């Protein structure tokens, strides 16, 4: 068994949604931690920004050609979402399901999905979120049934405020906000925490350190 005092192994990490708010923060944090990061982007300006974070951009599109970003990966993070485009079925459902099916066939087995709070209770969430939450419920369930070494992180409302490193995890967690910086930190921490495998949890800002909160998942 690996000693807890030993450093976490360095990984080749593939990020789908690397140009988004959580994805680009994760790329920067993972690169700074010594991991090799490959991120899927659609436009050259997104690629330039990713390079500034120390990551390698891979051009592609989640509705088309995205498989190359997985080459050589030890772990995959899904940080994508349709956002303002409204293409929830194409991105949040169909594309994630397609990624899961490819990973089942070719690997890697480690997958972390950034989903959303309220996926399992859309009727209790704000009406404008209900449609996308119902779509995410389908893809989250596909992940959970895949047999992959998955973790599904379901954050509350996302902000661009600096991360505090203090969170609250629950299933469910109380409705609240969380910094994208902290969500990226949580994802990065989960990569080295086997107790988070095959776990789904909600998370908002709180008063417990990320390390302590994840240690109780």
UniProtKB/TrEMBL annotation:
Domain of life according to the entry: Bacteria
Classification via SUPFAM superfamilies: NAD(P)-binding Rossmann-fold domains
Pfam family, one: NAD_binding_10
Residue span, NAD(P)-binding domain: 17-192
InterPro entries (alphabetical): NAD(P)-bd_dom, NAD(P)-bd_dom_sf
PANTHER family: FLAVIN REDUCTASE-RELATED, UPF0659 PROTEIN YMR090W
Identification of the protein by name: SDR family oxidoreductase
Species lineage: Bacteria, Thermotogati, Deinococcota, Deinococci, Deinococcales
